[in-house]
Protein: Homoserine kinase
Organism: Metallosphaera hakonensis JCM 8857 = DSM 7519
Amino acid sequence: MRSVRAIAFSSSANLGAGYDILSMAHMAFSDTVYAEIVSRGERKVIIESESALPVDPDRNAAGAPAKAVLSEFGLDYVIKIRVIKGIPFGLGLGSSGASAVASVAALNKLLDLNLSLEDIVRFAVLGEKAVSGSPHPDNVAASTFGGVVAVTSHNPIKVSKIPVNLDFRVALVIPRVNTGEGKTKKARELVPQMIEISKMVENSRYLSSFILGLTQGNRELVKYGLNDSIVEKSREPMYPHYPKIREIALKHDAVGVCVSGAGPTTLLLYDNKTDLESIKREVSHTCEQFGFICQLVSTEIGGGVRVEGLN
């Protein structure tokens, strides 16, 4: 009996105006998936997890892409997948995406499939679809490739890593709240289907500024680029605490700040010019005013998915 282990990091998607395009992996949290061949002659995926995840593979972020892999390659194996959740779910940290990526990467190693990183993303989006109804590729791309990525094409999947030439660290302001089932789906439903051309142009400026700021090492361009006039605005009812947290972070010279994915977590970039202690103190007070406790987690940009053979 052969088994492998895969580890995928948490991520923050959108990064301002990069809705469904940009994402950043970070080392704050990780999911671990163990995959093993139980038997041959039957095509089946068995899910095990100690967390409150559905064990039906069609409804599980790790199970749905695993079934798709077996089907596409015509492989008749019974595969057991054990998911160890380290990433809090429902908080905009790419939890389902990391499980999906780790699952596909583990099967790739286990079954000697020679999948490319973009192939892993292509299968992993099916895990996102199983959980949220939408096969959005941004989180899974970051957890697969590591670093800061841009999804340049959805069909076919094309992903490019963005060179980061600016020295900063990452902080996550994580509200300890219960966002309820289907939070990502609800957040996506709030995004307007029609927008004014002026808003599109404004967001295009933000997007290009952020990417240029990273590649050129320009702090001010990164700060300006982490804005969004469309998606964040449409979702403000879901996280009314965010405008105040953003105000506090920028007042104390954060490199930049934005909502992490579908929220409610806030992503904050900081460096030695940033007064992080004042941000921690004032953000904690703000969260208490909104009726919940916030955890501030300092971390770094994360690498791509890691896979180890166990036997």
Q: What stands out?
A: DSSP finds ten helices and eleven strands in the chain. Residues 162 and 293 are 34 Å apart (CA to CA). The longest helix spans residues 197-216.
